[in-house]
Design a protein that fits this description.
Strand content of chain B: under 5%
Strand content of chain A: 15-25%
Helix content of chain A: 25-40%
Mean pLDDT of chain A: 86
Low-confidence stretches of chain B: none
Largest interface: A-B, 25 and 21 residues
Radius of gyration of chain A: 18 Å
Helix content of chain B: over 70%
Oligomer: heterodimer
Number of strands of chain B: 0
Strand order of the largest sheet of chain A: 6-7-8-3-9-10
Radius of gyration of chain B: 27 Å
Number of helices of chain A: 7
Order of helices and strands of chain A: EEEHEEEHHHEHEHEEH
Mean pLDDT of chain B: 87
Distance between the termini of chain A: 45 Å
Distance between the termini of chain B: 57 Å
Chain lengths: 254, 287
């Protein structure tokens, strides 16, 4: 079966006012349906840039990216983004309207159908009691859950998550991670997840792509991550292995 | 293996004394004092009292009529329809100028956010014209458009367009990158993108621009009417003030001024405040 997302030899460059920066160099990977694919690496490895490129916000200077066989040329609702920032919800819309908005504008569902779908997904993330509240009345964790409900309600080909839990406090982060896994076990959506936390990558992902910084290159790919468990210590061992792998160069370079 | 001990304290919650005060109702006076309208109303009452006292002390209705003289004159003029008619004449012109400026500002700012040269154009032209008082253009307007509403609308547009365009533009520029990306993620582009993402996201700044524009417009209009007086047979409030000064009917002049103030207060505190309450305050985006 052809992979859902095919990124081959992608080099991403962006201009600052004084220079052209190479964010990633000849990065290749494929994501299959129902994968929880994690891009992991230290800051400066271009993982967020890579995710934005898959989102269609910037064009690769070399290489190709295809989603379900179609080349990625612009942002679209087949790849729903979930950002780290809490201001990703539209402040002038209630929780329900926020989840309905893309269903109405991008998928052009009839209002009734959109509302039913939105309510169902809001219930899935456990926010039914704030369904008519405005985003500024919600906590950070609730906002991120609304964003996840909004992304999932669109039933996109792939969910692109850019460190969605990084700005949350430690306790909320753990609850949100557990909830995401629970949601995944219900609907088996495909997700491309960016993080700089090794522990989060092991917890969330079934496959992890390790990137090295300046410029971002693929260092390794870890498969079958979901076989390790935190009970028998195998997760901790994998965390140590990944850590050693990522920071091996850094140790010799200094 | 050693383990920490956990002491449960559930029992305490039930046994807690009911005496400790969790919530206390505020007294009527505290509630009233917390209401901005009540506090401001009190200030207005005090100012009116000071006016009345000074008027009585001076005892010269030609220079400074008392508060009650002014109010009586105002009631008479409102009842015989003079003031409402004059106010309506002013407001009609104002409305024409105001809506034309908003349409122009919309075109300018949309051009400014879609092209870089549009941005430069808007920034240059607002920098040039914003400091120029609208009244300074009146002599020119009289030559171009003659004695009539055309000239008034022209100076009104000049006084409203620049602050509205400037604030809208800076509002658009400060829309967060995340929101922009969210909008494009939904496949929105062009005018739908402006209407459904940029305008609501920048609404706080736009509203500020509209408020400043309104204040400028109202002042400019009254001043312009004073300067060039009556247009087609029936003048506005500014002309009414000018007329009554010539007749030395000073209480009527004061009544006219009071009407200008009252209309200003109503628009500011009723119309704009209501819009604010139902939009930026509800959304938590007030800056």
């Amino acid at each position: 079966m052809a992979p859902l997302l095919d990124v081959s030899d992608v080099t991403l460059r962006y201009k600052t006012s004084s220079a052209v920066i190479t964010a990633t160099e000849r990065v290749s990977f494929t994501v299959d349906r129902s994968d929880r694919f994690v891009l992991l690496g230290p800051s400066g490895c271009g993982k967020s840039t890579l995710l934005k490129a898959v989102g269609g916000y910037l064009q690769p200077s070399e290489g190709k990216m295809r989603i379900d066989g179609r080349e990625i040329v612009e942002p679209g609702a087949d790849r729903m983004m979930i950002f780290q920032e809490f201001d990703q919800l539209l402040p002038w819309k209630t929780v329900l309207e926020n989840v309905m908005f893309p269903l109405l504008t991008a998928r052009r569902l009839p209002r009734k159908e959109a509302e039913a779908k939105a309510r169902a997904y809001i219930e899935k993330v456990g926010l039914t009691r704030v369904v008519d509240g405005y985003p500024h009345t919600l906590s950070g964790g609730m906002k991120q859950r609304v964003a996840i409900a909004r992304g999932m309600a669109m039933e996109p080909d792939i969910l692109l998550m850019d460190e969605p839990f990084a700005a949350l406090d430690a306790m909320t982060r753990r609850t949100c991670q557990d909830e995401l896994l629970l949601l995944w076990s219900e609907t088996k959506f495909t997700v491309l997840f960016v993080t700089h936390s090794i522990a989060e990558a092991i917890k969330i992902g079934n496959r992890i792509l390790l990137l090295s910084p300046h410029p971002g290159r693929v260092k390794a790919e870890v498969a079958d991550v979901d076989r390790v468990s935190s009970e028998d210590g195998s997760a901790a061992r994998l965390e140590k292995q990944i850590h050693d792998l990522l920071f091996a160069d850094a140790a010799t370079a200094h | 293996m050693r383990e920490a001990t956990i002491l449960l304290r559930e029992g305490n919650a039930v046994a807690a004394p009911a005496a400790s005060e969790v919530e206390r109702k505020l007294s009527v006076w505290e509630l009233l004092w917390n209401d901005g309208f009540v506090r401001k109303g009190l200030i207005i009452v005090l100012l009116a009292a000071a006016w009345e006292a000074y008027g009585l002390l001076l005892d010269n209705p030609l220079l400074f009529p008392t508060f009650h003289d002014t109010v009586i004159t105002m009631f008479e003029k409102v009842r015989d329809g003079t003031i409402p008619m004059r106010a309506w004449a002013s407001l009609k012109v104002l409305f024409m100028g105001y809506s034309a400026s908003i349409a122009l500002a919309a075109i300018l700012t949309i051009l400014a956010i879609s092209t870089r040269i549009g941005t430069d154009f808007l920034e240059t032209i607002t920098a040039m014209f914003n400091p120029l008082p609208a009244i300074a253009l009146l002599p020119l307007a009289l030559i171009w458009f003659g004695l009539g509403n055309g000239s008034l609308v022209f100076v009104l547009i000049h006084s409203v367009l620049w602050p509205v365009a400037l604030n809208t533009h800076s509002g658009f520029k400060s829309v967060s990158n995340t929101l922009r990306m969210v909008g494009r993620n939904y496949g929105l582009r062009g005018l739908p993108y402006v209407a459904r993402i940029l305008i609501p996201a920048a609404f706080s700044s736009i509203l500020t621009g509209l408020k400043i524009g309104w204040a400028f417009a109202w002042r400019t209009l009254i001043a312009a009417e004073l300067v060039f007086g009556v247009s087609s047979g029936q003048g506005g409030l500014g002309w009414y003030i000018f007329e009554n000064r010539n007749l030395l009917d000073i209480p009527a002049v004061f009544a006219g001024l009071l009407t200008v103030i009252i209309i200003g207060l109503i628009v500011e505190n009723l119309i704009f405040r209501t819009i604010e309450r139902n939009t930026v305050q509800k959304w938590g985006t007030q800056t």
